[in-house]
Amino acid sequence: xxxxxxxxxxxxxxxxxxxxxxxxxxxxxxxxxxxxxxxxxxxxxxxxxxxxxxxxxxxxxxxxxxxxxxxxxxxxxxxxxxxxxxxxxxxxxxxxxxxxxxxxxxxxxxxxxxxxxxxxxxxxxxxxxxxxxxxxxxxxxxxxxxxxxxxxxxxxxxxxxxxxxxxxxxxxxxxxxxxxxxxxxxxxxxxxxxxxxxxxxx
Length: 202
Hints:
mainly alpha
């Protein structure tokens, strides 16, 4: 008498749903937010420029790492979709502000970044957008330029590396301009989608 057995693949792992929040990418995003504390401290007291720059590089790298892990291992979650851009925008704004306070960046760069983010958030609330615009190719370039410019600006605080600081300031300035342009395109997208939804509902 033969018996039939079903093969069970013990190596299979349960797939995460979009409602799961305790994921590796989300943990990395939280770590990125926590890095702002020592970065801000070092910038305020104008201490350890090399360590500050290294922390900034890690800050920027984690933005790419958590996105890669989320896509590669199917760990995309609703929490991550909200938390990740908040960490990016908050981090860039905080770092730019403290660099301006320390007279390492022109004032207008911080104003450009902060005003753009506040305006975009206000437009988002006014039109009661249900979904934030998808990250555009220009937005990815903007983020890459800022994440390169900010650490280079900090390295420029080292006396022997002044020229690197000049390059960093130039890249950060370019990133701030791209940030404003990207923000305008996102604002238009929010308006366009909200208008379409109102027309459909009416």
